[in-house]
Amino acid sequence: xxxxxxxxxxxxxMEELAAHKTIGSAPREELEWLADHGxxxxxxxxxxxxxxxxxxxxxxxxxxxxxxxxxxRGKGRRKAMEWRAGDVTGFLPxxxxxYPPGESTIEEPTRGLxxxxxxxxxMVNKCPTVTGILVHVMIDRAR
Length: 143
Prior knowledge:
29% helix; alpha+beta
């Protein structure tokens, strides 16, 4: 099964972004840019967001749900990280990530605002506060 594109009224999406734990403090015009340039998708439990063999090309602003990444280590599969509503994951601005280190699996029904990396140059220019927040997210993730 593949993710489903959701049609969400812009006003409702703006409310969700303004209340978002990670990026909600950004100026309204930056949140509007994200709403206008992103795509809201829904995922079902068990779906793989990005297979380990595919390049990561999208950022997910988590609006609801739960994603966990599982990696194969010497003693088998283990959960390495997880994200919930209010988090941001996937490919972030200035990231050197190419392929995921494991399988990012949907743990419960999940919704996210997807921003493709092709949008990042414009996003960095139009959304400096969001970009700064995301750089800090990336630094924390690297730790």
